[in-house]
Amino acid sequence: MQQTRPVLILTATAILGLTACSDFDMDMRSAANGFSTADAARQISADRPRADARGIITYPDYQVVVARGGDTVQTVAQRLGENPVDLARYNALTPDTKLRPGEILALPRKLETNSGIAVTTLAETAINRAEGGAESPAPAARTDGPQPTRHRVERGETAFQIARLYNVSPRALADWNGLSPEMEVREGQVLMIPVAAQLDRAPAVAPVTQPGSGSPTPPPPSASTPMPEPAPPAQVAAQEAEDARPPSPQLAQERTEPAAATSFAMPVDGRIIRAYAPGRNDGIGIAASAGTNVRAAQSGTVAAITKTTTGVNILVLSHANNVLTVYANIDTLAVERGARVSRGQTIAKVAAGDPSFLHFEVRNGQDSVDPMQYLQ
C-alpha cells in the first residue's frame, strides 16, 4: 500500500498537467495532435484492377504487367513477345531477376492491339478453352476509372516516404505494386500510386411528413389528362386493314454471306477430330502428324507469337476486315512477328502430341466464329 500511493499521486499529477494544456485532446482526434482521422479517410484506396490473361493492366497512357509464380523478367518478356533486356532495363532489373507473384513491372511501351483487342490476349486464351482444357481466365476489370500516377523511385527514397508524399497508406502502396513484406523498393523502380476508393454517397432520404398530417394522396391520372376520345369507325376499319396486311419481305436480311467468307484454305490436311463448340472450344482440332507443315489460311500479317503458361506455342495472323486466325500446338516457327505472309505459306509445323493435331481458330474481331464457314 505504501508503494501504490506515490504511483497514484504521480498519475493524478500527470493527468492534471495534461488537462491544463489548452491543446490536449482527450480522445486524440484533433488536427493539432496529429491523430486526426481525416487523413485516414483520405487514404482509403481502391483495389488494384484485375489483370488480363497475360497479366497486363491497361490504362490510357501506359500498361503494367503482374508477375506470376516462378516468373523472371525473361519469362514475362517471352510471354508478351517483348525484348527481355529492354523490359529489365526499364524496371532497373536484370533479365534473370526472379519476381514475386503479384509484383508489378512497367512496360516500356503499350503492346500492339487489333481494333482495340490485344491479339496476344486472344492468343494465350485461345488454347485454354480448347480440347477440354481449363476455363478461360476472367476478363480484366475495366480500367476506365482514374489513371494512377506513376512514381520512379529515386536514390534514398523509401516506400513509407513515397506513401507519405502521395498521402496513401503504405499497405495500399505495397498491395498495388506487389512489394515484399519488408516494403523494399529500388532506385529506378516504377511504382503505381493507388487511387482513392470511390465511396458511395448516402442514399437520398424520402421527405417525411409532419406527425398527424397524413401522407399526400397522388391525384388520379384522369384528373390532369382526360381520357382520349374514341376513334371514328372509319379510322378503326382502316387501321384493322393495315394490321392485316402481310409484312413486306426483308431482302437485306436474306442476303447470303459474301464469297470472301469462304476463301480461307485449310491450314493442314486432315480430318476434324474436335469440333467448334462456342464457350468450350473456340476453334477446331485438325488431326495431323507431328512435323506436318502448317500453312497460312489467308494472306495477312503475323500479329503475335507467344506461349501459354504450359509452354504451348501459339501464332496469330491478322487479316483484312478485322479477321484473325489462331494456330496452336505448333513448333518450328518459320515466321517472325510483324512479317507479311501469303495464303498457303508455311508458317510452322505441327507439334508432337498424343494425338498430334493443329488447333485452329477464326475470330471476327473479339468474337470467335465457326472456322468451317471460312474454309473451302
Automatic annotation (TrEMBL):
Stretches for region Disordered: 130-153, 205-262
Source organism, top-level taxon: Bacteria
All copies of domain LysM, residue ranges: 63-107, 149-193
Organism: Roseinatronobacter domitianus
Residue runs in coiled coils: none
Compositional bias annotation for Pro residues: 216-233
PROSITE patterns membership: LYSM (PS51782), PROKAR_LIPOPROTEIN (PS51257)
Biased composition (Low complexity): 130-142
Protein name: Peptidoglycan DD-metalloendopeptidase family protein
SMART domains in UniProt: LysM
